[in-house]
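Format notes (please read before filing issues)

Several people have asked whether sequences and structure tokens are stored in separate files. They are not. Every record keeps both together, in the order shown below: the sequence lines, then the token lines. Line labels are part of the format and must not be stripped during preprocessing.
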Amino acid sequence: MRVLLFTGKGGVGKSTVAAATAAASARAGLRTLVLSTDAAHSLADAFAVPGRSEPDEVADRLFVQQVDCQRRFEESWGEVQEYLRGALDLAGVDPVAAEELTVLPGAEEVMALLELRRHVRSGEWDVVVVDCAPTAETLRLLALPEALGWYLRRVLPGDRRLVRALVPALGRAAGVPLPGEPVLEALDRLHRELDEVRQVLTSPGASVRLVLTPERLVLAEARRLWTMLSLFGYTVDGVVSNRVFPTEGHGAWVDGWVRAQGEVLADVERSFAGLRTWRVEYQPDEPVGEAALAALGAGLYGTDDPLAVVGRVPPFEVVRTAGGFLLFLRLPLVSAGDVDLVRRDDDLVVTVAGHRRVVPLPAALARLRVAGARVEDGRLQARFEEAG
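Then the structure lines:
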């Protein structure tokens, strides 16, 4: 199964490019779902259809969905939220404030991920295309499975029988009811589901595609996004430069824009060397509706397979050496000075430009010390050896 996510700076046309790719996939005979995690509802507008919370068939083998995050939130988090509201009420917290405090941070992003998981598990689709929210929201979205999983592993007890025995006594001592089995089960279920999301998004059939317009600021953000997505272990397989001026048939004013875009497009090729790159020229009309989007997709990809992942590099790899192990983490476009590396118990904490990833170390590495680290050829290399 193929899972393809599109993201980029707000306003670059990622919803249109995602929709065009989905239309091309469906016309190639693949049962395709394109869903949006962006609250702006641009995806439904691109197909000129109402935004529906369940897959809506807009053409043969092509379905569109706008995720209803609120409904999914109530289904997955309701038991935990009810417990938290009760505990806060006993503590004297205002009911309105309690309602706000019990909303899971990043709830919309979490629910969108769980909806993607549901569709992948269903087996109904050959291809799922995801129109992600703009850059900052996408980074939060894709960092959540591992980050929340890390916290939930520390919150959830290992021995439920011990918890069931201690909850009544601890609740009386604390003055508020401690979480019972349904709440613990809900947290455990969320942990398992997010772990499955992580597996889906890092599988060989999943990748992220960046959309940009040929402007300096947009390119700078796309470069950072490639680095950050790699930090969290996701594969970026290509870059789409959108709204490119044709090189012929215009006046002197547009010639200046053509030259400026040409310089940025050359930098795009250099910046994303090793990735596939495509270009979309400015269209004479706004591409709205399945037919226009399918035509755009055909022109965008030409003879390329729009769903192929070419030159996939493992984002995370551990290799045995004569003296221990080498851990490799792909970090394109960074130097050693951009990376901070800290060992904390059985975790490796990697920080790049304010973004932090906590990497649980495999058992073989957890007992070893970090003997050195460097950045080379777009990869962080950490060397692990026996202490002594």
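For reference, the curators noted about this record: The chain has two domains: 1-312, 316-385. The longest strand covers residues 236-244.
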